[in-house]
């Protein structure tokens, strides 16, 4: 959908470039007057089309390949090198069309020079000619990315506000709740230490959901601690019949990850999977690398649950991932042989 919309506007923009810019520049070469009759110069018309074929070849090449990869502040050198490649491409396309195909079909070529100089002339001219499609396609690319990012940030802000509103609606005097929990903790601290510690842990978990995780991104260490506390209460509930293995590999520190994103995997596993079967223990694997983070969950499917509807592959999770990372993430889910697998990879 996005590419089709951009293609439409690029076609319109390209036609305007031909009608307004290039046609005006080469109008004297394209036509001539004989008496009261105006004629098109066949050779000039042919060269006009060969020029524009090379022009839009470079335009498309830059718009679809080089600009998305290298038109970034930290890759300016690579983008300048790609301009050299596009200049060569412009020269090769024109040379093949004008000095091979047109020469073979119509027995004329563009430059009235000695043949040994023709390659150098094409390379020299193309350095200037290729600058235009590179410039125009880069401007169009930046315009659409600016509009896209602005829309994405607006949608992300709206979604975050909706989530906050839903959270506030579900709260029943949170200050009263935290004060009550603190009161219970104080009363039980000396006589029932383990219960008091559980109350404190529960208070921390609720406070994180209610207040701390309001930002779109949170430190990875806090998210991991939240997951560990979440699993702790499930373990207390199931006691010796809780079979969920959590393994964390890599350096868990201040790296920023989407707030309350990883917990969806864990929550999905605990709520809709089987976590009390010693023969098929569930597993949660978190792998932290320098540039990315992976989380993978595996569990036996609870036959009474519609897992595909309630799983992590829900529309809301995908929408949030797209708003945050565009296409720069991997999300896979699979339900096979009564086992459910989920995998997410996001950049750090």
Task: Please supply descriptive tags for the structure shown above.
single chain; 348 residues; alpha+beta; Heat Shock Protein 90; 6-stranded mixed sheet; two-stranded antiparallel ribbon; 12 helices; 10 strands; 63% helix
Describe this structure in words.
By secondary structure, the chain is α+β, with helices and mostly antiparallel strands. It folds into three domains: 2-150, no CATH class; 171-210; 216-348, 2-Layer Sandwich (Heat Shock Protein 90). 63% of the residues lie in helices and 16% in strands. Strands 4, 6, 7, 8, 9 and 10 form a six-stranded mixed beta sheet that branches. A two-stranded antiparallel ribbon has the order 1-2. A two-stranded antiparallel sheet has the order 3-5. Helix 3 runs parallel beside helix 6 (131-170), helix 4 packs across helix 5 and helix 9 (220-238) packs parallel to helix 10 (262-272).
- Tally of individual domains: 3
Total DSSP helices: 12
Please estimate the helix content: 55-70%
Q: Give the H and E element order.
A: HHEEHHHHHHEHEEHEEEHHEE
Gyration radius, in Å: 31 Å
The biggest beta sheet is recorded as: 6 strands, mixed
Distance between the termini: 28 Å
β content, as a range?
15-25%
Give the averaged pLDDT, no decimals: 76
